[in-house]
Each structure stands twice: as C-alpha cells, then as structure tokens.
C-alpha cells in the first residue's frame, strides 16, 4: 500500500471505528426518533449511508459509476430498502468494510482512474482522490448528525447528553 493511500485508509478506519462505537447501543425507539417530524432519524441516516457506501464500494472495486440521477430500476432498488435499522446497519457494515478492503489494495493511480469513472456523470469535476475521500467525509458528517440526535433524544427525556454532557465551552443554565 502506498503511503498516501495508507494515510487515507487510517483516517477511514478511525472514522469508521468511532461511528460504529457510537451506534452500538442504539435502541429501536432511539433509531426511529426524530427531533421534528421532517427531520432525519438515525434509522434514515443509516439507510442512506448503506445505499451511498454501496455505490462507492462498487465504484472502487469495479469502476462502476456513481449515479448522479437514478434510473427507474435504481430508484426501485432504493425504494425496496426497508426502514430496518439493524438490517441496514449490517448492510452498511458490509459495504464500508468492503470499501476499506478495496481502498487498502488501491494505488494512487488506480484511485485516480476509478474516481474519473465513478464521477463522470457529475457536472463538477471530481478531485483526483474523491472516491477515496468522499465516503469518509460523508460518514463523518452523518456521524456528527447521529451524535446530535442521540444527545437530543436523551435530553428530551430528562437525561444528560450522551456525548460531552459537561462541555465547558457551552454556557450553563439559561444564560
């Protein structure tokens, strides 16, 4: 593995391990809870990630393009995925671990080639390493969203926040 790819793999593994650690004890009620009716639940976020990471895995493993717009058949495949947190988390596990395995065996040249193939349908040109970086960025952003939802879920039940319940950088009380 080239050093540049190794650094991205290390980052991806670190984000993945933290993401999975923070989902270990999500209850069914917590997975379905939304802070507002139009907001995402943890279950919806995990479903979304399972779909997206699956596309990125196919792109890095086999050079398949990532859909910029879905065909009718692709939309039917997406629509068939149930809102089943446990099943979608298993699908996400498999997809991300497969993505990591393919990333580990990649070279910088292969990543450039697969990135061009993956994002060819997009209007904005992709950075040469987008295929390696985007799934990790995407996962990290949703990891933060999930942590926020989990904190809000607990606070609405009169419990302390799960993550950083006594963060000194936030004011205490109503002030």
Please write the string of helix (H) and strand (E) elements: HHHHHHH
Level of helix content? 55-70%
CATH superfamily: dinb family like domain
* CATH architecture verdict: Up-down Bundle
CATH topology-level fold name: Four Helix Bundle (Hemerythrin (Met), subunit A)
What's the CATH class label?
Mainly Alpha
Describe the structure.
The chain is an all-alpha fold. 63% of the residues lie in helices and 0% in strands. It contains 7 helices and no strands. α1 packs parallel to α7 and α3 packs parallel to α5. The model has no long low-confidence stretch (mean pLDDT 91).
TL;DR of this structure?
This protein has 175 residues and is an all-alpha fold. The protein has helices at residues 3-21, 28-32, 42-62, 72-80, 85-104, 108-118, 130-155.
Notable features of this structure?
175 residues, 7 helices, Four Helix Bundle (Hemerythrin (Met), subunit A)
């Amino acid at each position: 593995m080239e050093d540049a790819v190794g650094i991205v793999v290390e980052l991806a593994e670190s984000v993945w391990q933290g993401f999975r650690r923070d989902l270990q004890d999500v209850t069914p009620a917590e997975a379905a809870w939304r802070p507002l009716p139009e907001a995402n639940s943890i279950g919806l976020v995990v479903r979304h990630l399972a779909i997206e990471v699956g596309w990125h895995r196919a792109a890095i493993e086999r050079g398949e393009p990532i859909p910029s717009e879905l065909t009718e058949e692709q939309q039917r495949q997406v629509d068939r995925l149930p809102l089943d947190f446990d099943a979608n988390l298993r699908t996400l596990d498999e997809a991300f671990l497969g993505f990591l395995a393919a990333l580990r065996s990649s070279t910088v040249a292969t990543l450039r080639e697969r990135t061009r193939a993956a994002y060819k349908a997009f209007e904005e040109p992709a950075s040469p390493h987008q295929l390696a970086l985007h799934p990790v960025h995407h996962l990290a952003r949703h990891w933060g969203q999930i942590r926020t939802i989990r904190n809000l879920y607990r606070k609405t039940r009169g419990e302390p926040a799960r993550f950083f319940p006594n963060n000194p950088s936030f004011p205490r009380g109503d002030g």
